[in-house]
Amino acid sequence: MDIGFLREDYNPPLLRRKDLFETPFPTFKAWLEHAIASKLPEPNAMTLTTTNLEGQPSARMVLLKEWTEEHFTFFTNYQSGKATQMEQSPKVCLLLAWPVIYRQIIIQGTVAKAPEEVSHAYFQTRPRKSQIAAWASDQSRPIDSREALEKRFKEVEDKFAKQENVSLPPHWGGYHVKPQTHQILARRERPLTRLL
After folding, report:
1. pLDDT per residue over 117-143, tens digit each?
2. How far apart are the C-alpha atoms of 137 and 191, rounded to whole Å?
3. Rounded to an integer, what distance in angstroms lies between the CA atom of residue 96 and that of residue 127?
4. Taking the model in full, what pTM does it have?
5. Residue 59 CB contacts under 8 Å (≥ 6 apart), including other chains
6. Which of 49, 96, 130, 196 is most buried as measured by Cβ atoms within 10 A of its Cβ?
7. What is the 3-state secondary structure (H, E, C) of 8-73?
8. Which residues, in sequence order, are CB contacts of 149 under 8 Å at separation 6+?
């Protein structure tokens, strides 16, 4: 298949500066709400880019779970590859892209672990199986087999079987990304950049 021939005729409504708010956060809120209202799959999914000590970037998808004008929050395994890279270099980039509505937002900033009470509060809202999986999965590390992972999941499930609540794993929690720049992008319009 020659993907060079793939084409789409972009003809969305134009985005103009007069359509934006004076500060970037109301625009972010409006676009995120638009993505949710459009019933896009995983509208809070975002690409997280980190770098290692050699400056090699890595990108993967995470889920935005909270945002304020001070920080954007996601949760993950503290022993994962991204966690290791964020410890080595706290400079990160987030990208929320909604191609169906012709919008994307780039956020550059610095990352730090969220307070434990934030991680605990969010962890208790997760489905029980997701809580069990956080204990059972050694994220970013090879596993011997699917059977080995399922066995580990069952062991953790049995461990908490008689407990109403699954406790927060010490190796799992949140991160806050403090924004430094915020770039608003749309089709057929030059990037609109503002310092926060």
Report:
1. 999 999 999 999 999 999 988 766 666
2. 40
3. 25
4. 0.85
5. 47, 48, 49, 50
6. 96
7. CCCCCCCCCHHHCCCCHHHHHHHHHHHHHHCCCCCCCEEEEEEECCCCCEEEEEEECCEECCCCEE
8. 136, 137, 143
